[in-house]
Amino acid sequence: MPKILHCVAAAIDDGEGNILLGQRPADKIYPGLFEFPGGKLEPNETPEDALVRELEEELAIKVDKSCLKPLTFASFTYPEFHLVMPLYHVTKWEGKVDPQENQDVVWVKRDELNTYADKVPGANIPLLKFVGKL
Predict the structure, then answer these.
(1) What is the distance between the alpha carbons of residues 81 and 100, in angstroms, rounded to a whole number?
(2) How close are the terminal C-alpha atoms of the chain, in Å?
(3) Starting at the edge strand that comes first in sequence, how are the strands of the sheet with 68-77 ordered?
(4) What is the pLDDT at residue 101?
(5) What are the distances in angstroms from CA 64 to CA 51, 118, 128?
(6) Which domains does the chain have, with CATH numbers?
(7) Which parts of the chain have pLDDT scores under 50?
């Protein structure tokens, strides 16, 4: 049985039909692939608290927990671990998206998210399809 990794992610929506994806840095697992921003939960941290923290650390934006709208989740087995990851919809934040961890970000038209299916880790593929239909 692989180790279970609890993460959280955000479909950040600019209100104009674009969703933010971040590119994984070269020094992380699955480098160069795109994903919804987010990260690992710390011990005794709720998914909402983790996402607020991760978005500030990764993108320098402040999101109030009340602005996190649950969308769906991923449950996916990678060779190294099994990922369980809720995905939240974020349409309101403070600050300008400014990547802080040496990663590139792209705004992708919602109806073009499927074009990234071969550029994301496996757990993100069904999430792209789900978000693309919002």
Answers:
(1) 26
(2) 34
(3) 38-40, 4-12, 82-90, 68-77
(4) 87
(5) 10, 32, 24
(6) 4-132 (3.90.79.10)
(7) none
